[in-house]
Amino acid sequence: MASKRGMTAPWYGNNMRRITLLSAAALTTLALPVAPADAVVEWELKEDATSLGLTGVSPHVERTGSADRLWYPGGLSGTTVADCSDAGSCVAVPVTGRLGSDFTAITLPDGTRRAYFVEITQGAPTKSVASAPCTTAACTSVGASTVASPLLTVSQNTKAWGVPDAVVTPDGRVRLYVVESPVEASCTEKLASYISTDGITFSKEPGWRLENGIAVDPEILRAKDGDWLMVLADGPGCGDRVQKLYTSTSTDGLRWSTPERISGSGSDLRRLDPTGYEVSPNVYRLYYATATPGVLGDVTYTIKRGTLQIRDTARGGDVGITSKPSGKKSTVKSKRTKSITCVKGKVVRKVVAAKCPKGFRKK
Questions:
Q1: Is the pTM of this model over 0.70?
Q2: CATH number at residue 228
């Protein structure tokens, strides 16, 4: 849920490029308008074996010096803060006062810091997406809060609502992404956005950014003019009901491509609430929550770390990955080739190509 990202410019053109999404359990394909046409680009999520020793959901991460600073719910005390080393050792950071839940923070164009979070109204059965100025550069304490918009106050009983992610847009405004559920039922979550010139008062933007349940826990990994990248999750009631992580791309932060899955399914762990930052061109460090069911029906949420890498395996270089969503369809289908399934041992790839990648055979 951070906003300051290193960017790599995309390649634009009329040629079609084949892109393959690789994960531990499944692979999907989308075609993007980048060149040349003979390269294979893979999105690969590798989960670290390191145990951070942190339990909870909805983390927010920022790189601070030589550590990753994590804000995450700490029970009745509110949001807790910890600094985690590259080796995975985490130490608590003192917090002054109470920080709201689903916490995220940004640096405004004038250099000031502001936090956004879900706030429960004392004495009233409502909850709101609110913001407050950070009273320290580290944002371990905040000042008086302000509700971001009258439209962002709902009943405490309203499900699938909140989880704000704020990002500074290329033109210096602040966009706030919020999960809403106009109809409370299974897999009805939608992703809305609100815009502000000062980061304090927001107005809702028309339409939905994403729909059909795959619109939960948004995190903007990069927001560059013409090149946006988001990582997110699906709702707990969608599909096989095992929450998964996805990526989506956009040219303007408003129209997003159909989310592409990057984590497993079936009997695999639930993964949700992603946050991250770019460590090098097209390499992102992600933190997210995993859910492990207990024998009594309880669930333990553990914060995990992984690396999302986007690479051109045929050329060995980094690539721009932004597609050009139309608003109706999020990806462009190649007219020259069709999707084929390729196998190599236990690895299965579904690619848009005339033949399988080297080392694979057509199934």
A1: yes
A2: 2.115.10.20
